[in-house]
Design goal:
Layout: H1 2-17, H2 45-54, H3 57-69, H4 73-78, E1 84-85, E2 90-93, E3 104-107, H5 110-122, H6 124-136, H7 154-164, E4 170-171, E5 174-175, H8 180-191, H9 196-203, H10 208-215, H11 220-234, H12 240-250
Antiparallel strand pairs: 1-2, 2-3, 4-5
Helix pairs in contact: 2-3, 3-8, 8-10, 9-10
Length: 281
Amino acid sequence: MANYADSLRSFCNWCVERGYLPENPLKGLAPFNMTPQVTRRAISLEELKRLLEVAPPERALLYWTAASTGLRAGELRSLKVDDLDIERCGLHCRAEWTKDRKYAFQPLAPALADALKASADSGQAIRFYDVYNRKRSRGKDVPENPLLYVPHNTARVLYTDLKTAQIPRQAFGGKFDFHALRVMYDTLLFESGASAKEAQQLMRHRDPKLTLERYARTREDRLAVLAEAIGNTLRPQGSIESTQRAILKKAAGAESCCVPTAYDSGRVVEAGGIEPTTCSP
């Protein structure tokens, strides 16, 4: 919508410059509020695996591809068999159907590339589209030589599979719909160690803020794992109790004075800088 407004504003400026309009009627047009109205969440890897297990094979392949590439439903529907490059192990995203109208090459995991090749060789996608045509008489919706079968209503079939997998559509963090698979892809990129620039390129975003702020998510289980890893890294050598005993032995008059340990009252004290407390009578 914002791009359309910019185009109209530029056209009106052109008309003013050439005398077709006395002034630009869109000059005072305020910017559109681009804040997303829907908050989407990234389901856990365990939930995604459960979804792929219960979904029919053709839909499991679709979900697998969507979560592994970040391609949108319309882009997945536009994929042709010729777009699959087995030698380079990836997909050719043609400019005529990508959202940003730019060519991109999307790498794939070898296992996924092999699965897509097997599906293409079997003609699975075109067979499902033939059934779809007979039921709805909508041949115009069928792409030429499709790589994947993408249902017309992706939300409805996904919700059916989510129910079978006992995965809630709405939970803490937002809703999970088909576009949330793109959210999950971005989240997994960062969890796998991708840099901001690498994630931006694989997500095919012009603005890195979209990659970092709108799509990437943090998960409570991941945060707990990271916090535990840092705590273990910073933990002193040996047990806390042995560390305490070592500090007490180095403290002058430790036998007769009550000396706070390095972890007394949650306060870390450097060895050699321990202040003795008042001795017990």
